[in-house]
Design a protein that fits this description.
51 residues, alpha+beta, two-stranded parallel sheet, flat, protein biosynthesis, ATP binding, tRNA synthetases class I (W and Y), ATP-binding
Length: 51
């Protein structure tokens, strides 16, 4: 049985070197070893806590 990995990102703008070094490079490695699922959060909610 293949192990699974679930990870995600919040889409906040254009890709930059920090994304590659901090996240994307590692995920390429993980997908070779595991069944990988990636969530992309593109819906942002502003919650007003005080009125």
């Amino acid at each position: 049985m293949t192990e699974r990995v679930l990870t995600g990102d919040r889409v906040t703008g254009k890709l930059h070197l920090g994304h590659y070094v901090g996240s994307l490079k590692n995920r390429v490695t993980l997908q070779e070893q595991y069944e990988t699922f990636v969530l992309l959060e593109a819906y942002h909610i502003n919650i007003r806590t005080t009125y």
